[in-house]
Amino acid sequence: MLLVLTAAMWGANGVVSRAAVGAVAPMTMVTLRWLIVCAVLLPLVRAPLVARLPEMRRHWRFLAAMALSGYTGFNVLFYLAGYWTSAVNITLLQGAIPPMVLAAAALFAHEKVIPRQVAGMAVSFLGVGLIATRGDLTHIGALSSNLGDLMMLAACALYAGYTIALRKRPPLPPLVFFAGMAVAAFAESLPFLGAEIALGHAYWPTAKGWALVFFVALAPSLVSQLFFMRAVELIGPGRAGIFSNLTPLFGAFFAIVLLGEPFHFYHGVAMALGLAGIALAESAKWRRVAPHESS
């Protein structure tokens, strides 16, 4: 149940990026999001955070880089994408993250990739291509017109890099590590907010905008992280990771029901391809693990 709720909150975040257009400026959203997370989280972890400050100072470059890629950079592109593409596309394109992680692991972490995983990655990217070309792969050369989709793919690439780098994170308690990155994400969002103000694109959030800001700060940013960490403790990271495949499904559902966005046939095909590709790649892992477990 914790993982299902986590996937639902992550899926809803894509709907927020589209619903926020005209209600809160994108860089304002990013800055306020991490400000609220810090205001809620830091008092809760004050004692362990103070105790681990010397260790965190030694790893401040790593924390800053992780926050910039997985939190600030990802969210900047994520909320900007809402101005150029639909919430359905935003949520379904997040399905590109698992195959990107697989590719990055093979290229940069020197992990062995077997043919079944490569096939799964190819199937998932075929689904991404369907979304980016609006169901017509013959238009692959015209991707420059789909600016929001390209932003989402860039955001997915940043998050894939963040996921790979997590394996080398310093030995800090999860909540302390998360708190450190939240502070870094807030600090790194300030230049983007400054640019937004300087360009004259900033404006005070409407009542709807404030509601969206508090939702993304408390649900996708904070509560979902706590739920996910607890779920990993209960059933392990392998089984917990599979539930992230529900995120595009929840996102597409919310976009259709709450925003009234159309759901085209190619969206359904892309969703099926994305899930099938992830399942194919994951089945290779389970196949390697199963003989060891049975013994």
Task: Explain how this protein is built.
The protein is mostly helical. The protein is 78% helix and 0% strand. It has helices at 2-19, 26-44, 46-51, 53-58, 60-81, 87-93, 97-108, 115-132, 147-165, 174-198, 207-235, 237-242, 247-259, 265-294. α1 packs across α6 and α7 (97-108) packs across α9 (147-165). The chain is globular, with a radius of gyration of 19 Å.
Give the arrangement of secondary structure elements.
Layout: H1 2-19, H2 26-44, H3 46-51, H4 53-58, H5 60-81, H6 87-93, H7 97-108, H8 115-132, H9 147-165, H10 174-198, H11 207-235, H12 237-242, H13 247-259, H14 265-294
Helix pairs in contact: 1-5, 1-6, 1-11, 1-13, 2-5, 2-10, 2-11, 5-9, 5-10, 6-13, 7-8, 7-9, 8-14
Radius of gyration: 19 Å
Distance between the termini: 30 Å
Structural class given helices, strands, pairing? mainly alpha
Shape: globular
Describe the biggest sheet?
none
Into which percentage range does the β-strand content fall? under 5%
Number of helices: 14
Number of separate strands: 0
Compressed to H and E, one letter per element, the order equals HHHHHHHHHHHHHH
Mean pLDDT: 79
List unreliable stretches of 5+ residues: 289-295
Helix content: over 70%
